[in-house]
Amino acid sequence: MASTSKMPSTSEDDLEEEFEHFDDFTLASSWERFISEIEAVCRKWLADGTKNLLKKDAICLNISEGLYKVKADLKYEMKSYCMEYYFGTLNDGKGKDWSCVLHDLQLFFGVNEFLVSLSLIKKKFLVIAPQSASGVVLDGPEASKLLSAVAIALSNCSSLWPAFVPVHDPSRKAYIGIQNMGTLFTRRFEADRIGSQVPVKLMHLEGLYELFVSKFAFSNEDLSTHLFEVSFKMKLTYCTLPYDEDDDDDVQEPEAGSTESGGSPKSNHHNKSQWDDDCPWSEWYSSEDPVRGFELIAVWSEKAFESSLDMAELENASPLEADDWLIFPCLSETLTEDSDGKRIGFASQLRLLVDALEMSMEAKFIEDFVSEHSGPETLKSSAVIPPPTVLDRVLKDLFHEVEGLQLGFSDGDHKNSRTIKGAPLESLFGQFCLHALWFGDCNIRAIAVFWIEFVREVRWCWEESQPVPRMPSNCVIDLSTCLINQKLHMLSICINKKRQQEQESPKCGEQKKFPSHVKEETQVKRCLSPRDGKTQTSSGERESLSRPDVVKDSVGHISNSGHSDTVKLGDAKHSACIRRGSAGVVGSMMLLKSQQNMHAPFTQEPPVMTEDMHEERLQAVEALGDSFSFSAQLEKDILSSDMSAFKAANPDAVFEDFIRWHSPRDWENNDNMDSGASHDNAIKGLTVEWPPRGKLSERMSEFGNSWRKIWNEAPPLPASEQKPLLDPNREGEKVLHYLETLRPCQLLEQMVCTAFRAAADTLNRTTFGGLKQLTTKIGQLNLTMAATLRCLQTSNLSIDTEDIQDLKRLCAIFEHVEKLITLAASFYIKFMNAPRLLESIFNDCYNFYAPRMGTGSTASEVKKDFEKKQKVGRREREIAASMLTTPTANQSWRKVLSMGNLLNGHEPTLREIIFTKHGHLSENYYGGHAPRGYQHELETYRMYISGTSNYLSVALAVASCD
């Protein structure tokens, strides 16, 4: 103590300097310092845990398997290393030996699951490798030293993670590894690969079995004569050939000119049988099969074998006898990519049509786009026009009359497509728009040339009185379609009436026929109300006649009476009066003054009108104000024609008689009871009180009523002698004037609406097995189109940039649905006889791809490969196996097969085998025995083998007590 008190006192700075130069003996060498750095990183990862690592810088390797990794950079002497820690987040119990999304080391050594003291260590392992171009350790001593450093660091951390070091050449995928299994034993790993010249013996299961047995049966005797019980699992993968490569050598390629002509694909003929020849879009374009092929996987579950003879017998077994079958499609990358010229379909052409719409706003006349030296400066000179031969071929196909064509709404069209104001798919303008999508490159110049020639063909039909193809020549014009379709329908009706008028001139000795404007066989009732101006229908008004001699009275009774177009009245005092244009007696109704039977006249057909004609008449009525009644002014010509026909059929009729027949509701009975009694007396054959008690309604009896004025001015003329309500010559010329002077923007607006509707209706006719998700998607597409295209259906439209952007977004949505429809059609062709498998596979693909379509995600943000497998039932295996057709001589296929388990002549493209041996450590060859009292049986040997006749990979894991 005395000596201690005599020691000189040291300052605080001297103590700090002394501790700064303190060297711990555990870090005496650089190698020990390296171990300390590894240990510090591992302790940090252990302390953070899975949740904190995910929040920091963990990299996702596979979402479905929940596999992530973190990494750290280390230095030892003059070299830099990278240590990666792999960990999983899904605790799904038993490991998935055959999952193709596992890391190579998880497949090689089964590190996704280890049984250690009855606890699971899930998907956690380390990989340390040099930061070099090869990423492997080429020097053997360096690899052993590196692995030892990691093993010591993990032991200091009391961690049971396995650690691996890549060695040899990178193409060999060789590893060495170690895992500390606590205080009992250690597991060592080694993997290597033969890239060529695989020994024939190792191409067969028998030789592979003996290779595994040789690792624990240390004997010079023939292994084939001894029985060693081992566990065995096997997975065989078969791949179909890409469908677009089948029989390529037997197909003559089309001439180059056919693809550069710019014509409609509908008019070209395929020289090669395509997978989609029976699909509705095949007449416009041929789509690449989105299903590049299939992988069929046959799995034999874990079984025990005792000899190589058992393995030889298994090699001769059919894959159809496997315990499980799995299948998944190899899909094209275009499913998740925007077209950008890579994929040609309706969506890509609709984009070009929208671009043409945007450019059409810059000119007033369609002819401005025809010449290369005229039109807007923004029109690119590269906007080429197909040659005249192509134009002639397209027009010939377009104006070819199709027999038995169903016009209007078809059963194959979607119910929501009617909400889009376009033309029906099979109509002339509908087909024009689809042809325009493929004419040239669908630029505004090509569209202008195509439209001008189209109108010329339409005018030729008019001048030559030839029917307009693909358009009905009768029926009521559908105002829900676009105006161009309505005009073409009107022109078709006018041409038909012109032809009828030319044929109605009676020849000598022939009976005079009814003119085309007279409704001979069908009478359509019309009640023209001066108060509301609407055409109404009621049970008391004039009914339709199925025959000229069958007439309904005002209460619906039918009477049959002979009649003729012109007859004399029977009463002598009316002998000078001639009845003309009678269609028959109207029940028991009689004229008020003469008490003659009332006759219903033949009347003219009501004139058909297009949407703009209705608007013009409404504007004219609004301009006249209240000087005339709304309905009387709007339908004056029709009402006057009916009154003239009624007067001719009933020469003694008065205005009240016409009202009783034409508009019974405007005839009011004074006493309903008396009227009922009179009706009963008529039934009993008694004398009917005459005249009937009644009067005109208030609106018909008011002073200056327009109906009475028209009645007074109407001459008694039958319908056959009246001027037609519809002048076909005038209306036909008006239609042609509209088509020839149509502004470019108005043309393109209607083309865009019609093209979207026609393209959607074409795709809707695809047969895909009624998949519910796709059916819902198609319905949503039609609703989206109707909402987006509504901006093009208003008059005097001025398209703005926002509307164009909405249309381009609609093209992207259309492309996504088009891809799904193509995918569903491809699946249906291949699995039409296995509906359950069809629905399951498509639903898996839909759930994978639908969220990724149109998101703009890059390849690094989403996983591009679809890897979901679907289990194949026993009854479905033959259908799945039929996709592996027998190889032909023209296909690049091995002529000599080296492996067994053939499926329709195909050997496996990949064979994976797992051999395992379970036992006590006391049975292990390696030094030492298991601690006394340790009775647990564990996996002492595990060998993973994969490859074909061209290569072989082997990974061995051995547990020992050293």
TrEMBL record:
<feature type="domain" description="Rab3GAP catalytic subunit conserved">
    <location>
        <begin position="578"/>
        <end position="740"/>
    </location>
</feature>
<dbReference type="InterPro" id="IPR026147">
    <property type="entry name" value="Rab3GAP1_conserved"/>
</dbReference>
<feature type="region of interest" description="Disordered">
    <location>
        <begin position="505"/>
        <end position="566"/>
    </location>
</feature>
<feature type="compositionally biased region" description="Basic and acidic residues">
    <location>
        <begin position="505"/>
        <end position="555"/>
    </location>
</feature>
<keyword id="KW-0343">GTPase activation</keyword>
<feature type="region of interest" description="Disordered">
    <location>
        <begin position="246"/>
        <end position="275"/>
    </location>
</feature>
<dbReference type="Pfam" id="PF13890">
    <property type="entry name" value="Rab3-GTPase_cat"/>
</dbReference>
<dbReference type="GO" id="GO:0005737">
    <property type="term" value="C:cytoplasm"/>
</dbReference>
<keyword id="KW-0963">Cytoplasm</keyword>
<protein>
    <recommendedName>
        <fullName>Rab3 GTPase-activating protein catalytic subunit</fullName>
    </recommendedName>
</protein>
<comment type="similarity">
    <text>Belongs to the Rab3-GAP catalytic subunit family.</text>
</comment>
<dbReference type="GO" id="GO:0005096">
    <property type="term" value="F:GTPase activator activity"/>
</dbReference>
<dbReference type="InterPro" id="IPR045700">
    <property type="entry name" value="Rab3GAP1"/>
</dbReference>
